[in-house]
Fold these 4 entries.
Entry 1:
Amino acid sequence: MNNRKPARLFTMAAALVAAMGLSDIAAGASDRGQQGHEAGDRGVYPISQTKQGHEDKFRQLTEILPTPNVYRTGGGKPGPQYWQQRADYDMEVTLDDANQRIVGSQVVTYTNKSPDTLRYIWFQLDQNRFDARSHSRLTETNDDTERMAYDTLRRLLVTRNNDWGMTIERVALAQGGAALAHVIDDTKMRVDLFEPLAPGDSVAIAIDWQHPVVTPGAVLSNRNGLEVFDDGAANYFLSFFYPRVAAYTDYDGWITKSFLYVEYALEFGDYDVAITVPDTFTVAATGELQNPRRVLSDVQRRRLDRAAQADKPVAIILPAEAAERRAKTPDGTRTWRYRAENVRDFAFAASPAFIWDAMGYQTRDGRTVMAMSLFPQEGEPIWSRYSTQAVAHTLDVYGRMTFPYPYPVAISVNAPIRSGMEFPMIVANAPRPAADDGTYSRREKYGLIGVVIHEIGHQWLPMVINTDERQFIWLDEGLNSFLDTLAQMEWEPDHPAADDLPGNAIRYMTSADQVPVMVQGDALNNRGGNAYTKVAAALSVLREVVIGRELFDDALRAFAERWKFKRPQPADFFRTMEEVSGRDLDWFWRGWFYTTTHVDVALTGVTEARIDTQNPDTEAEIARARDADRAPTIMAERNKAADLDYRVDRFPGLKDFYNEHDRFTVTPTQRKAYEDMVAGLEMWQKRLLSDDSRLYFLHFANKGGLVTPLPLDIAYEDGSNERLVIPAEIWRRNQSEVTKLLIRDKAIRSVKVAKYRSIADADHSDNVWPRAAADSRIELQSRPPRPNLMRDMGETAPMSEEARDG
């Protein structure tokens, strides 16, 4: 069911008001409340104030977020009638290594838990993205007509003459075998049912299919593929390899976006999968191995039992054993059977080259999870040293920040892809050392640790917290990037990730090609800078500055618990964070997620003041001292230096009363007025007049446009320090300039804004008072030699006739 009525009513109301001539009402509201950001991106909202350039950056998101309903509450919880569909798979797959092809058959049991009657079921055929005629391939652009990367041309040539699309050979009812009509559109397939599927009913659909394996995977795909090593051994990682039921949701009905780049929305279910491969291959997959006695030796099974109790990785397949497997010619095939409960997808890796290690990890709720890694010798020496330890570390940190890892295994595989990719219980990671002499670089070490943490972290988002990446890529990638940075920083002190947040978002946030975070995933200009880095930076600011760690962590855990094994939307995250933290954060979501403004605040000046006692004698002495400290004019100063003979010195009679009394002299009349004023005051007013506090007026300018808290570090003349965070609401009446008054009983020596780079401020040079000299180092350079084409081509010029003839 699509809950669109409230948003439609709002659109109709907006149109009516516009027709009445109230042009400040935005007319471009979306049918869905979640996508009202289209108007917000332009800074146009139903409430608009244009006088003196004022904009209310603190108004509520009521006109943008969807109306709460029985499925999703206003506090961010699943509603009392929340539902989601279920799809269970029984599958048999054969990996034909000789022809580099997948052949499969499956029975999908689809259960309709929605309140709607369904007449058809949509499937995703994401493998079709690799067809040369797919929407993904046909809509690629190449704007630069003079330059092209080698990788780009290679990919274009690879796809030109190859068709890696999926061939559907049969679609039928599993019971009885009656063929079902179906239509394929790009990366989607609609299967029409004989009888409408009523709420609560199930249908079992049999599908046979096959397709070639994408090769070379690292060139074309970051999610699956094949590589062949120099000795002929193959390394497969297979994902998106079978027809998958598309998501049917309470907020949008069927999610039928074509697979252009951004990943998928799926349903949970149980998987029973039989994978037939050459008998020299080792297979790792989503789920638990069901037939270890058929595919593993007695020694390997004993090693697995020992690994479950070990506190460091134990080798299951030794390097020598892997070398023996990859050198051996297969005699036949072997079938590996895996079962996974309550997962939303399935993937597997297969190779004769795999070294395999594992260790047990004890969750906070008392279960043992097997942390594992499979990798070829080409991944050494970093894989055996770091991969499984990074898996276990991720289970520990994410389990503490959200909820304990719910599955029995977590596997990291060295796969032929470009970086990393996640699937339930198994992730693919690309990094390997470039050198073959047993050494590795710092980048390779921390690159592997970082990508393993990030991809295993995806087990929580989106594998359990079932976000819809094709609509909002940031809701899993951004949250996961934030959490993986926390986990990396807990790996060791001074980890390189410590420099990541939130400062590394500045370059993107100040760039001309920035778009709002809430833009649909495939439309993003810069997915990494936007959905990953900017969102991670936003959450860092929210945790460290806006809310504080304790309240933020409580709210994040609440979101994770509420939505595990369910499908949240952005509003559910926003509302949960607000409800549990007790903070109104609409200003934060609006600025960071719906606009392209950035943080750039300046401490433009500081004014120091003291209370005027109004006592004429006291104030006269202060004024006289200030006047004495003031530098004279240049003319007066030079006259003194010239030792002028002033006229009043030559004619003393010219001096009178005013030469004896300066302009600060206090009269009896002034004293009497002061005494009369004091007599009319109450005691508390008299105390205020004698208060000796120092008043500091701190003047701030918002140059970037994004309202932000102001974290201040204050140093005093007596050597003490103070840390103070001014909430973002200080900008609520004026989003351009504000002045903050600090009353202190001691002198301030200096003030620094965002000393610890905590708010993604684009320019720190104007964040300190008094101003400090900029620090730099000058690199001396010589002029490059001017080009000499004749010399570079090895040519010489003949001597002129004049020179030759003398």
Entry 2:
Amino acid sequence: MSDETVTPMMAQYLEIRDRNPGALLFYRMGDFYEMFFQDALNAAEALDIALTKRGFHQGEPIPMCGVPVHAAEGYLLTLIRKGFRVAIAEQLEDPAEAKKRGYKSVVKRDVVRLVTPGTLTEDSLLEARRHNFLAAYSELREEGALAWTDISTGELRVMPCPLSRLGPELARLSPRELLVPDHLETELAELGSEAGAATTPLARASFDSSGAEKRLTALWQVGSLEGFGSFSRAELSAMGGLVDYLHLTQRGNLPLLRAPVKEMAGGTVQIDASTRRNLEITQALSGGREGSLLAAIDRTATAAGARLLERRISSPSRDLTTIRLRHEALAHLLDESRLREDLRDSLRRVPDIDRALSRLALDRGGPRDLAAIRNGLAQALSLSARLSGVPRLLSQAAQGLTGHETLVDQLDQALVAEPPLLARDGGFIAAGYDDELDETRRLRDEGRGVIAGMQAEYAGLAGVPALKIKHNNVLGYFIEVTTTHEEKLRARPDLFIHRQSTASQIRFTTLALNELESKILNAANHALELEKRHYEGLKRAILDLAGPIGVTARALAEIDLCAAFADLAAEGDWVAPVVDDSRAFDIRGGRHPVVERALRRQGGQSFVANDCDLTTGASPAIWMLTGPNMAGKSTFLRQNALIALLAQAGSFVPASSARIGLVSQLFSRVGASDDLARGRSTFMVEMVETAAILNQADDRALVILDEIGRGTATWDGLSIAWATLEHLHDVNRCRALFATHYHEMTQLSARLDGVENATVSVKEWQGEVIFLHEVKRGAADRSYGVQVARLAGLPVSVIERARVILEALESGDRQGKKSTALIDDLPLFRAAPPPTAVTPAAPSQVEARLAEIDPDQLTPIGALSLLYELKALKT
């Protein structure tokens, strides 16, 4: 193109790009998606693909790159993970149609979809066992609300959420994308980033509550939302923002959203982001799933069951009835091992019904999604027959498995066992389902045989065995005889129609032959059109029953999770916890589920179980745990928090017995980390997290705190730890485990009624410390820090110097010296000579005698004599 002129195609590209700011534009050109200008530069770098040029614009070459359409999903996944949004512009007409308007006419194109982190539906772009939530936050008149959906499953939920609660709720949901009003973008972007979500601002009009109500009633085709529940204006606004964004990104082709479910504040255990991180509930501190609680306990057989498991442990219930129903169902399947194994065997053959249904609704599905619905519903019918005489939770789930017999029969008759991925590939409708399709396929696949049969038929009718049916590009199919037999065919003008004569042959046709020719030539396209027509009909039949199918999918997930928890309990010897409305917390023989699993994998090592009893007469109940580092204090703290979480999530627990009064909040401050991005040191992070606990914990909370105050000077740290413990006892009045290396604080148990001392046992042997990992009542006499440092491999000179300093400090303490005077007395801050090398001691008599011995030359009696000799030397 010239420097001054923009071609029609490039003008179209620029116009579409300008209408979709902030997104890379995938511009369909035949079998490729092309990108130009800055989009090409960004995409080439992000995807590591070749950058080329196409023409000129304003005197400069136009950068260009492209990706094949058939491989586009892999490139999309890379771009989304790197923070891009992608607008996909498809060809909306056949290029032949465009040419009818003129030689230089441009094929009509427009964006059919905007791909963003929260709007993915394809299997290749999603993690099968995790939700992909799109969330929206709105605030009206200081009233906040949070709504979220997973368009790949159709789930939609909403809850009241003041701004102060947004961070913990985002941590619970881990959405991929957060929608916010544009005037709140700056304020909320950091919260979204902390939760791992891309923050997308929308205009205020998207969150207008009046407009939102109209959008929502239109979506579900109802006159009022009252049938779904009562929603505040802020909740309507948040849901309206979601739906408006889906209109924008899906270009009007809305996903199959289920009726909204309102979650009430206080229905689940409150767990903030730092606690989730410290306890490694769904993600290990290293960043992956492996090493987390979720990975350790996941025995689910289906993708939907796995997603439900993650929701349950992320949001443990506070409703006693719900918790007990879950435990009752689990106990039944634990006792009925044959039923449990039968259920799990069937569940392993259940596809992901929710996501197949969603793809069909968005017109991104294919024949395999039809088969997934068929196979899933068939397994549901099979499962329902086995769930008789079961507890209430399982019987309710069983009721949702039936009612699909007609649809299953239709799909079973219509579909082959293993259909192709795409409808355009054909071959997915079973033989015998449609006579016309069968005949068309026969013509497509057996055209020569059909012609041969017709040739034999005409040869018999004409009495000419030498009659042939032939084909050429000019006449198509025709009947040919020699001039000798011409009169025999001309004698049947009702059947044979003359077409051409040559010197030696006469050519005829028939109406049936002409019709057959047309059918053969068009058979492939016609067969595909018939299959596509059936695909649309089957898809519509499924979508007409989307509501009941969704109920079945959720019932299957519930049964799967219950059976998985039972399998986990049977494998790990877990017990049913007693969860009640008391303030009890009595764990006998408790174990850490993740550490125990890791030990088993490392050669079958056993985990040392421990008791934890916070059930006291006083309102606060706090164990102050002392003992050396590496003795297992942090493991003990975490395992008790995880046991409480598992119990209220509906699972059995790794213990010999457990009684847990309902926990309202779970707080954890364990481990050391900094936050350099926000200018926070390790100690500042520790103090921020501790402040959040002290400001929020109520008397039903379970708090675990580890080594408060260690990030600052000794006396500062001790005073902070002391004051924190007093606040937990006097103000929060909660149940807590408080680990500290300040063993001086053990004296507080005599002053605070609700505080008891506990310690992790160790044993000293010849100057070395042996960790027993046993927790018992009482206090540690010291911290054993120098011994642990020796185990860590510090140089011997450093260890010896540390011992000298420690003895002097402890001696000064006993003599009542002030710390400053004590430091002045020590050469700690004086110029000291460099450490001298430690001279090894001369070998002892025993060692010298052993050095002279050749064990291979000893006889049995000689070895015995030598043993007596060495014993004499030792004494």
Entry 3:
Amino acid sequence: MADTGTPQRPARTGKQQPKETSGLLMTVIRTLSASESNEQRDREKGRLEREYRKSDKRLDELITKNDQALKDVMQIFGDVSGRLAESRRRIRTIKDNLAACKRLLHCKRDELKERWLEGVEHKHVMLLLEQIDEVRDVGERVGGYVGKKHYLHATQLLVTSLARLRTDLKMVEALKDVNTDLHARKERLHDTLIEELHKHLYQRWTREVLALRRQGSGRDSATTLTRAGSDRTSLGTGKSDKARKNLLEMMTSPNRMRGGEGAVVEEDVSGGDPEADSQHFMAIIVECLALLGKLPDAVETIKRRMQKELGIIIHRTTQQITEYHPTAPPDDPPTAVPAYLKADSREAKLLQELLQVVFEQLRLVVAAHQSVLVSLRTSVDKHAIEVHLYSMPDVWSKVQAALQVMLSEYLDLSQLGTTSQQQAPAAFTEAATDLSSFFTKKRPPRSKAYSLFKFEGSYHAMTMNTYLMEQAAGQGGIDALDLGLSVTDGNAASSGGGSGGGSSKNRGERTLVCPASPHNITAIFNPLQVFVREIEEALGCSPGTHCTLYVFITDYIKDAFLAQLHIETAARLEQATKALDQWHTCKDLNQLRALKVSRPLLQSSLSVWETLEELRWLLCALPLYADHFVSMMCNTLMNYRETCQAAYRGITQPDSEDKRIISATWAKDEDISRFLRDLPNWRALQAGVTSASIEGDENPEEVGERNRKEAEILTGNLGDQLIPPHEILADPAQLRTLAHLQESLEWFGGRIMGLAEALPVKSTSSGLVVSGEVPPVSDASVQTLTSLAKDFEELAHTCLLVLHLEVRLHCFFYLLPVARGGVFVSGLDSQEPDPQVLKLIKDLATIDDALTNTLQPRKCKYIFEGLGPLIANILMTSVVYIRRINENGIKKMCGNIFSIQQQLTNITMTRELALDQARQYYEMLYHTPDEILNGIMNQGKQFSELEYINALQLLNRSSPSLTQDALQISLQRLSEILGDVGVTV
């Protein structure tokens, strides 16, 4: 064992050698144990010796190398051993001393206990004296904290001091006055905290909004606040800049306040503004109320005063807007805009500004309540207080109630009950297709019995104002408004001036920015809808369900506004029809110039169009009722169409059944109407092309040929018999009336068509309507408007065709008797026109004078263009009715033609070539039949074969020397000549 243990010593300091040496030694031992021969043992022994010497050599080397380290280790080991021995010795000494002390304490136990009790009693007395000194100064310290609005430190100090007075210092008689004073301070602090909380809930930020709104002059809230926030002079101090920043954050991200839930409420007394962060300040106030044990009372106070405070905000805003926008001077000219068309009126702008400012303040109030609720929940959980908190739906409910009170004042709901019972309510709830019965002209309303009392009217929209006022009064609201202003809004009284609504005696004379009227809803409906959507999003209303404010607004519109609108529209339509009965025209040049028209229009058309424009404006003002307003447009137009048709029939259909106006009958005839509308002059007229443009493209022969075709058709229908006087419109005033009707209805139909084309059609993918944009309506309504526009245009076209035909009928009326009853074989050489021709000339001048100032020039051109070919055709075909004619008769007929041609030239400002041809035709009668036939052979054909035949027959009747056989020879020769000419051509 000695041999095996020796080589292991150097192995402890090596890295890998101990494992190798030990392994070799064990191998040698196993080999020696297992060897059977001495020779093998000697061999193993020699191997073991060699390894031993090698190990011994390595050990010497390692000892030589680590000699100093070994010395150091041995020295340290010696020091440690000495210190351990010294420590054992000291411990034994301490144990001996402790045993001695134990024996001594056991001997002095009673004396030491007495001394310890005396020390404890002395320490407690000193502590009580220190507490008494501190409590005596608590009042001043609390007052100092309250003065600096460090309410959390004041509350903590006050609560701690009162707790001491209830426990440790309870029996100190000298502190009773201090206790009473601190309790009084606690109550005053509670009141102060409540007022500070309401100030930050309802006044601080709302006053900022009023100041910034006044600076921004009613611009968009975010833009106004941003601009005012960058303006250092708006409120004057860096404190105001922080306030604006906090205000913007509360408006743009109201959910930011939720990050404070569960956070530790701390108060900085380093000298900064404690109210700079309003949310943190309100959290401190809530924590103070919780520490005071007044949190349940504070919650009840908040709920009780909420309605009153919201009313104060609206009242204060109304006063400031009224002061900032003084009443218009009495000498301002009154506007002619109807009561409900107030988009650009001063009253509408003031009401919209009031509503926007109130909305901004209410949003901040709601955000502040949300922050307070977070703080309340945190304090309730932290202090384990049992209290029934209000919720955000409760806040929104009060907001809606306050808005309903305000709207009740501006919409004048007090008149709703009487108005709704004076008119038949069923007339306004029927379908759109049944509304025409409401506008029926000259139909006396059927008397209908109404019940004296209706239960559904109690506390409904008509009495909502009274109901809300009673509710607010029950909560200490309206009657206590002055008290609220004096306590929580001290500056409101000064800012409100002497305006009404501040005291209970003037409660019925509340200050309003504009007069109360049911039509005020048109100015505020869209802003209200935006705010309603905010409320419904905040309340999480499901699709199809709405908040109470939405129900209030929609019920009011259905029950009051639409009913009154129907009554007013019916009155305006009746007034318009009366104007149509009297054929009043608008003579206001400025109004006509604004409408871009050059001819007078019927006042009735303008009145009805103004009504339609107002209804179209209502489409944008009340987009939810767009289809209803379009239905009102359609029914108004239907009634006006019937009135216009009745007026047209009153002119063109006399009372006697056996009489008829030929022009109106022909204008209604489909074939004649289609023929006239297929002519190029009608198509050019509808395309807006003037006759001058047509003449620039067509030569006079083409124009004459086109008009000659129309003349031949009319002559074929009217040339056989005389026209009775009662079958024409002989009165120029009637023609002027038709012209006014045509001009007005054409303009009116075009405007309606433009209105129908501008209306967007509803689609399943249509979204919310942006304020100011035209809302989509049903396709059926647009089609109905388009159809009505075409009806008015069609009636206008009919009037123009009647005028076109009537002028031509006058030519037949005056010229047909000339040939039938005239004497053309007179011995007098006179070129004076025939009396009937003079009447025609005068009639044409009168008609031209009546239509020139009534119709546009292109329409007058259409009416008078083509009269030359027609008159020429009438005169040339009239030769068959002339019995005999001589040179004097020919001169007389040529004089007639010249006079008519001169008058037509003055009217149309063009030379009538057709009348030149008619005069040449009659001048041909100067020649004998043979000369006429030779002229055809030499000069060619100038007239039709029938016209030559009629001329030859007239010459035969006029010359006694010519026999019937000679006439037949002339006609046979004419046929041969015209046949040869036709072949040659």
Entry 4:
Amino acid sequence: MADQIVSFDGMTVADKASARASVRLKWTILAIIVLMASALGLKAWEERQSADAALLSGLHAQAAATAARMEGRAETAEIAIRLVAESGASRSAIATATPGVDAVLSLKDAQQSPAGSRLEVAAQTAASLLEQGQRFSVSSQGDIVLVSSPEEGGAMLALAPGGTWLPAAGAGRRVTLVSGNTSVGSGDPALESATLTLKPGEARLTSAPDFNRLATACVPLDGSPAAVCESVLHPLFTLDDLVRLLIFALLLAAPVLAIVGLMNRLSREDAVTLIEETREDEADRIMGLVMRGARAGYWEWAPGSSAVFLSDGASDLFGMDGSGLIDVQALLQQVHPEHQARMIDTFEKARDIGWIQTQFLSHSEPPLWIEMRGSMTDDPTGKAAIFGGIVLDITERKQSEDRVKAAERRLRTAIEGFNGPFALWDHRKRLLYWNRAFALDFGLQDTLRPGISYDTIMIARTGAIRAEKQSSEDARTLLVELQTDRWLKLVERPTSDGGLITVGIDVTENVHNEEALKRQKQSMRKAVLDLERSEGRAGELARRYSEEKAKAEHAAHTKSAFLANMSHELRTPLNAINGFSEILAHELYGPLGDQRYKGYAHDILTSGQHLLDMINDILDMAKIEAGKMTINPQPIDPVDPVDAAVRMIRRKAEDKGIQIVLDAQPGLPDLDADHRAIRQMVLNLLSNAIKFTDSGGTITVTVEQRGADIQIGVTDTGIGIPIEDLPRLAKPFEQVSGTRDRNYEGTGLGLALTKSFAEMHGGHMSLSSIEGEGTTVSILLPISGASERVAEEEAREVA
């Protein structure tokens, strides 16, 4: 009954106990509520921190992906710069072919641009990058500047608008490229100032107007002082936050903790997924760079699809931009029209045979040879099969193959054009190749086939051979007489790979000549015997004739040697006389004092030069008589040396009041001749014409074709030559006037040298004149044959 006892305040003991229990319960519930509220608050704060970390992590990953793409573009621009520097390719063409690049130029050219211009600012940025050892950055005008210093040549830079390298962004989002106080970005301009105070590699959340928060992350660029920053507006409270708080308020701590744990796990999985995707993107970027460097790419195609997937490298080869699905018809438009039908047929057959391998020419400028190959693979889902493979740039390989085929065609044509037999055997002495003459000469038209053995051919050809013998000069050479009365010289030589070459030369004429020579020797031996039986006086006369001939030859040799030595001895002091007289005549070291000294020096110079010309003519004549004068014939324009000679002597003619006219036939073929010798011949003839033509006269030089020859003629209106003197001209030291009444200077070697030079070219010189009216000297030179004549003379000298 104790619980019924009433206390002084009117409450029973039970009521007090109940009140105390109620208070304890209230405090307990309040404590539980406080604990739950604290736990909910702490959990909500933890949730907010995790969400902020995930937001910044995702933003940082996006900025890293953007930075990787920009570094890839920078590497592409560097490749373009190396192409310009190393191969000399067109800068404008390389800049046009490089995505996102406006110009490729040298640093020196950019520095010469007007002050304050886009290129001048870019040049300052490039110079700063070279000092810092960086590759690219942003100029103060917002351009991306990439600089490279190749091993050869000066530094070069590439210029691109900053916005073209950044991805597009919408409202509430901005992508910015920051370098110092300069920034270039795309997206919401209101967010531009958020990136200027952030350091590269840093990420943060800041307050923004209208109950928003601004999330920003910056990633530094490799090889650049710049950084890529991503900024996005994020609401302070989202609907998810309010729902989550409501759920936390209604649910118990355990379910709340379970949900929070589940959300934490999902957040971790998202982070792992994002990291894996970033790694995959980086791997794709590296693979793309490798493919571009190898001029290759990959493709995929499902037989039931009307589109083909192309990688970046494959798109570049087809002349397209970017990777992705390309319509088959659009892809065919990038193939040369002549090869489009083959491509369609290849794709049609691929469904049946399960693989693709073809080569085609692209419809680009310049066109590229592309090889496309791949095979069918099963889809991992098992629903359908797809084709996958690679495309390769094989332009250089095709060009090499074409050059090899062209060389092979030329070789085959040359071998077939060879009038002697030719055969090629492999290391097992099996026939690989032969020409038509090999089959006809040995009567093997119905026997020859590739792979037939050497011994079989030796047996089969015996019917066409009358006799054969080994050459006394070479054990591997045979002289073969055919049934057709022809003689062949068969030579066999091993090849570097162990094979054998058989070559036959028609020596019928040589054999007949040897036989004729033997008969002549017999006749000469008989004649010698007859001479020995004749009177002794004939022998004595022959001996005296030989002695006199030897004396004459020795005298001629002595004369040539004397002329050569004396000419050299005279020319040495003449060089000094001419040199010093020219210094005096031109007063190079100051005036002489008396003008008569200058006139005397000029007379000395003129006389010395005249004497030097005479000595040079004597030297040339001595060389010709000694057989030491040579010419170097080359295909030349016949008018060129004639025009050079006219221009060289025109001043001399004008000083005497004589007009020189050059009349050349248009469209003349090239002449096989020595340019210097032709010029010297024309100079000699013009000098003679000027010498024997009075003031007011005319000299006409003609160049025209006469059949297979070129005729060069020099006609003057001078004094002419008596008809009785014509036969002795063109001989050394011969002139028309006698020695006692000579009115004209000279050695009489000009015409002799001209005649000798003409004969060395296989031509000749002709002379016609009418006394008192003028003279015409003509040189007739064969258009072709001078080189053959020189070769024959050298062969005779060697023999």
